[in-house]
C-alpha cells in the first residue's frame, strides 16, 4: 500500500513519522507532499519519507491519501488534486469541520474517511474518532484504523454528527484539561508556591490520577468517593465545585464545542470555510 500525506505541518508530520516508524507499511511506500520550501527541507532532513514538492509525482501513485492541511486551504488543494485522483483511491481527511460531502464533491471521489484526532497524537497518545462514506469497505476501514492507531487510539463512529460530538469531548478536550491545570497552578502560586513547584504538583497529580483511573474499571465517581472522606479536605473542595455547578458548566463547554463543530461543517458545505 502506498500512502501519501498532504501537508507536512504539526499533524501531517506527526502522522507521517508515526506511520514510518510503525509496522503499518510492510509493503509500499510513505510519501509526503508540502508546498513550502522550508517545510520540505525539514521533511527531507528526517530521512524517513519520500518527500515530494509536486502533486503530479506522488498523488497518482497513492492508494491512501491523508489530507492534513488547514481547512482554509482545502478548496484550493482539492481543486488542484481533482484532475489527478481516481475512484480506487481512499482519502482520509483530518481537517476540522470539513465534511465528507464537501470532500467527495471537491475531489469527485467516493471513498472518504473523516477523522478527528487530538493534540496528544504528537506524543503517541492521541484519541482519534473517525467515520467513513459507504463506499469504504470493511477491509479498508480495518486498514485505516491501524493507520490512525499509529498515533494513539481510535474509535469508529456511525455518523458525522458523532464526529462533531467527539470534537467536543476528545478533539477539544486537551484544552479543557489544560484549563483545569492552569486554574490549579494559579491556585498553587497564590498559595505561595514557586511556578516550577506548582507545575510539578499539578502535572504529577494529573498523570497519577489518569494512571490510577486506567488501572481499574472504577468510575471517576468511585474514585472521588475513595479520595473524599466526610468532613475532610477533598470533600470541602468537591462540595465547593458542586455548589458552583462546575460539572454542568464543563458539560456546557463541551456542548459549545460540539455546536461550533456543527456550524463549521455547515460552513464547509457552503464553501465558507474561514477558520484555521
Ligand atoms: N493540531 C491539532 O490538534 C488538530 C486536531 C484535529 C485536527 N487538526 C487538523 O489537522 C490539520 C492540520 O493542522 P496542523 O496544525 O498540522 O496545521 P499546519 O501545521 O499549518 O500544517 C499544514 C501544512 O500544510 C501545508 N499546506 C498548506 N496548503 C497546502 C497545499 N495546498 N498543499 C500542500 N501542503 C499545503 C502548510 O504549509 P504552509 O505553512 O506554507 O501553509 C503546512 O505545512 C488541520 O486541518 C486541522 O484542522 C488539527
TrEMBL record:
Catalyzes the reduction of 1-pyrroline-5-carboxylate (PCA) to L-proline. InterPro entries: 6-PGluconate_DH-like_C_sf, NAD(P)-bd_dom_sf, P5C_Rdtase_cat_N, P5CR_dimer, Pyrroline-COOH_reductase. It catalyses: L-proline + NADP(+) = (S)-1-pyrroline-5-carboxylate + NADPH + 2 H(+); L-proline + NAD(+) = (S)-1-pyrroline-5-carboxylate + NADH + 2 H(+). Pathway: Amino-acid biosynthesis; L-proline biosynthesis; L-proline from L-glutamate 5-semialdehyde: step 1/1. Pfam families: F420_oxidored, P5CR_dimer. The lineage of its organism: Bacteria, Pseudomonadati, Bacteroidota, Sphingobacteriia, Sphingobacteriales. It is an enzyme of class 1 (oxidoreductase). GO terms for molecular function: pyrroline-5-carboxylate reductase activity. This is Pyrroline-5-carboxylate reductase. GO terms for biological process: L-proline biosynthetic process. NADP(+) binds at residues 6-11, 68-71. It is found in: Cytoplasm. HAMAP family: P5C_reductase. Its main location: cytoplasm.
